[in-house]
Amino acid sequence: MILLDPSVAKTPRAKTSQDGSAFEEWISVSLDVFKGIFIIFMLGEHTRSALAMDMSASERIMQFISQVACALDMTCFSTAYGFGCYRAYLTNSKNRSSSEQFKRLLRSVGLIVVASWFCNLSFEMAVLRKPITFTTLRKILTFEIVYWDFLATFPAMLLVAFLTTKPLMAIAASAGKSSWKRIAIFAILLGWPLLVPRLALDTCKSPLEIYQALFIGCIHRTMGAMRFSAFTYMFFFNFGCIVSLVTLEYSKSANNFSIPTIREAVSSPTWLGFIALFLVELYYAAPLFGEYNRSWEYLNWNGYRRFPMTTPLILGWGFMSQSVGIVSLTMTALFAKTKSTSNILSKIGQTVISVLEHFGANVLLYLTISNLVIHAFFHVDWTRFFKPDKKKESMYTNFQWELMVVAVAVGQILLTRFLIYLVRSSRK
Q1: Exposed, middle or buried by CB within 10 Å (0-12, 13-18, 19+), for 316?
Q2: Are 158 and 1 within 8 A, CB to CB?
Q3: Of 9, 81, 87, 391, which residue is most buried, by most CB within 10 angstroms?
Q4: Is the CB of residue 192 less than 8 Å from the CB of residue 237?
Q5: Do 63 and 41 touch, CB atoms closer than 8 A?
Q6: Whose CA is closest to 196, among 280, 310, 313?
Q7: For residue 206, is it left (φ>0), alpha (ψ between -120 and 50) or beta?
């Protein structure tokens, strides 16, 4: 997939003017920074879960990491995935032949599917300690059993996008920048996923229900059934497609992109649509800020449910994910303008941007290595070290345990960087 496949990690560029190329470079780097930010949170949350560190034993560090990871990892990756898929597969922004597009599509999806198979097989053997029978292998290969459902959602979203998003985006692209017809199409693209939570299954025990859960979700799921439903995350995927279209049009223009004035925004249907969506999302996000101390890992509070996602949560977390996108664009723009200066702050900023860009371009690699590593932690009874009972106090404080989780997560990053170095330095 785009956000995971290094060969298409960068934004595909159309033939543009010099200003357009600079704009595309900004968008490309910002997209990788946007994804790279959440690698850190994703690895931290996976490590916390593997070490069985309950949120009650978490203080400020892990609480923040966990809340951000739960709210934004999947939502932001889905947005980035939609952004990249639109340019690479849903439209032909680089004038590639149909056969070349198809080959790139198969390669991208194939990488995710193979990574998902490896992670699920590893979980079955290393965590559940079950032998791999032909029946189990068949169920894993056909996604009847999915433990790392995060990965399986992306190919499902791309399949849905070919059936729904691609034809609607083609209409929107031909409607013109200032057309209300385009806004109506955008509203359909963002609106239909908000209706999906009403279709969620109550249980999913049969093979048919398990496959249905892949798309519409299941409330009372069993081990190996999907938590992330493709239809609900199409809200974020489609938003990424919309932003991809708008930025692609700007890159083809000879004029530099600039933040519109209030007068320009009010007269532009596209900007009015973005502002209206942002305000609606803010309305639904506001109650969540007041419930920050409540764990969002399995959130099910006052109509805000994570698995499967309900409409208020889709909108609330949409506001948060889009806000991070704006921050990524701003960070990249600020430090890109100071590359030639000797200011220490600028150098630090450029280093941070470079590291995050690397993370964002190699999401699948970091996620797969992390999954395989943390499977080794599941069989240690970590809870006895940090959950005091009536007879014995914990040997470590909560803060010390948080530092250990962070250290293990950083270790996974360093291990992945070392593997990258080994591959690049291999002779044959």
Answers
A1: buried
A2: yes
A3: 81
A4: no
A5: no
A6: 310
A7: beta
Q: Phi/psi of residue 425, each to 5°?
A: -95, 0
Give the pLDDT confidence score for residue 245 in this predicted structure.
Answer: 95
- Write phi, then psi, for 300 (nearest 5 degrees): -155, 85
Side chain identity at residue 377, one-letter code: F
Query: Are 140 and 125 contacting, i.e. CB atoms less than 8 angstroms apart?
Result: no
Beta bridge partners of 218: 201
What tokens appear for 57 in the block?
């034993």
Q: How many CA atoms lie within 13 A of 410 on its CB side?
A: 6
Region of poorest pLDDT, from 51-55, 189-193, 249-253: 51-55
Q: What is the pTM for the complete model shown?
A: 0.90
Residue 185 near residue 168 (C-beta atoms within 8 A) = yes
Q: What is the mean pLDDT of the chain?
A: 86
Report pLDDT digits (tens) over 122-174.
999 988 889 999 999 999 999 999 998 899 999 999 999 999 999 999 999 99
Per-position DSSP letters for 8-70, written without gaps between them: G-SPP--S--HHHHHHHHHHHHHHHHHHHHHHHHHHHHHHHHHTT--GGG--HHHHHHHHHII
CA distance 49 to 148: 13
